[in-house]
């Protein structure tokens, strides 16, 4: 298809130059970018080349999610312990105040 015919068709997808820029910025050597060989050729992408890095990225994110979930659970346990300590201290203060007030009313 000629350039005019190809550009007349509305397409969805990534812009190859943006993918190349993002890959370069992140230091990732992405083999899915097909650079033009001649001035008439266009950049294109090999979409099947996206599968492995995307799966790897999802695996890495899942690992981070699992670690964060563990941290959240640990923080919840710590928070519950601190709340228990706080509640106990508050109850002790209330008892001391009641005792103090009762003692000083009698005097």
Main structural class: mainly alpha
The tally of beta strands, per DSSP, is 2
| Coarse morphology | rod-shaped
Name the strands of the widest sheet in spatial order: 1-2
How is the main sheet built? Answer: 2 strands, antiparallel
Order of helices and strands: HHEEH
Number of helical elements: 3
Radius of gyration: 32 Å
Give your account of this protein's structure:
The protein has 107 residues and is mainly alpha-helical. The chain has a two-stranded antiparallel ribbon. The longest helix has 56 residues. The radius of gyration is 32 Å and the shape is rod-shaped. 0% of the residues are buried. The mean pLDDT is 91.
Layout of strands and helices, then pairs:
Elements: H1 3-8, H2 16-26, E1 33-34, E2 44-45, H3 51-106
Antiparallel strand pairs: 1-2
Brief description of this entry?
The protein is mostly helical. 68% of the residues lie in helices and 4% in strands.
Provide tags for this entry.
107 residues, mainly alpha
């Amino acid at each position: 298809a000629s350039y005019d015919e190809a550009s007349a068709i509305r397409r969805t997808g990534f812009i190859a130059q943006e993918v190349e820029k993002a890959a370069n910025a992140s230091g990732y050597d992405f083999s899915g970018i097909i650079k033009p060989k001649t001035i008439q050729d266009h950049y294109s992408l090999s979409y099947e080349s996206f599968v492995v890095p995307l799966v790897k990225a999802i695996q890495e994110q899942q690992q981070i999610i699992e670690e964060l979930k563990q941290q959240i659970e640990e923080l919840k346990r710590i928070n519950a312990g601190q709340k228990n300590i706080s509640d106990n201290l508050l109850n002790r203060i209330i008892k001391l105040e009641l005792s103090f007030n009762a003692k000083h009313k009698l005097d």
